[in-house]
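Q: I have 82 residues here and want to know how they pack in 3D. Can you give me a structure?
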Amino acid sequence: MTHEDPYRLSTPRATPAAADGAGAVSRGDVLRTLLWAVVVISVVANTVASFADASVVVHLASGLVTVLAAGTLVLRGLRGRR
């Protein structure tokens, strides 16, 4: 029985299954990474807007983007546990 650590930063050693494309990055991994990037960027944008004394529209827009991206991450995480 082998256990793969999902938080491992280095690449795992080559296995026969990896030669078949099993180690390829999936669309889900790419989407999750992009959603996290959107969350971070929108939080930073909201923080900068706070210090720049921007209008309420900018705060609402960046907050909405943050909530949508974070909500999508949560839903995908919950759906993946089933």
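Q: Anything worth noting?
A: The mean pLDDT is 84. The CA atoms of residues 8 and 69 lie 25 Å apart.
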